[in-house]
Design brief:
Blueprint (H helix, E strand, L loop, with lengths): L2 H24 L6 H7 L4 H7 L3 H5 L1 H16 L5 H14 L7 H9 L1 H25 L6 H25 L3 H18 L5
Helix pairs in contact: 1-2, 5-6, 5-8, 6-10, 7-8, 7-9, 8-9, 9-10
Length: 193
């Protein structure tokens, strides 16, 4: 990664961190884009160069995971769909920086309009996983099996995250809850080979 890309990543991270801090201090509704930009020492215009709207800051990790899923499919070599899914989810979980911030996740699931955006991203993840599984294992997975597998994976992750948020678990416990859910799911998906 070149200097320009590193600077862009640093600015993006500063905006996300500033938003997270302000949401905790002032609440989501009490925080403006101008507040976030000022806290990150950038202009409002710069903010909009990275995010379309305030709510998009909350989903920065989700968007990062969608990219990571596609990249992981390109990098993973597995004999079975089950092994591929496990490896991919482990990689994506390891790269998920917003799991270290259950407060940000709690904000996402607390407001109906944010829940709708979260649902859109979950549907996108499910479609991406299904498409990539079907493409990688055309002899084993038809459209129904690939979609059912992707839906089960996304559902397990969402259930684990919501449970962890509701219990107020710290990041490490939340990650372990997700791993436990994936292990349970793995037993159910063994029929895929």
């Amino acid at each position: 990664m070149g200097l320009r890309e590193r600077k862009k990543e640093q600015t993006r991270a500063a905006l996300v961190e500033a938003a997270e801090r302000l949401f905790a201090e002032k609440g989501y509704d009490g925080t403006t884009v101008a507040d976030i930009a000022a806290a990150a020492n950038v202009s409002t215009r710069t903010f909009f160069g990275y995010f379309r709207a305030k709510e998009d800051v909350l989903f920065a990790g989700t968007d990062q995971r969608l990219r990571a899923i596609g990249e992981a499919f390109d990098a993973v070599q597995a004999d079975t769909p089950l092994e591929a899914a496990r490896q991919i989810l482990e990689r994506v979980l390891a790269a998920s920086d917003d799991l270290s911030s259950p407060d940000r996740l709690a904000v996402m699931f607390a407001k109906p309009e944010l829940q709708a955006q979260a649902l859109q991203r979950l549907i996108a993840a499910e479609r991406l996983i299904a498409e990539r599984l079907r493409r990688a294992y055309p002899d084993r997975l038809d459209d129904t099996l690939s979609r059912a597998t992707a839906g089960a994976l996304v559902g397990a992750l969402v259930g684990a995250v919501l449970g962890g948020i509701e219990q107020g678990e710290p990041p490490q416990e939340l990650r372990e809850r997700i791993r436990r859910a994936l292990r349970l799911l793995e037993d159910g998906l063994r029929t895929l080979g």
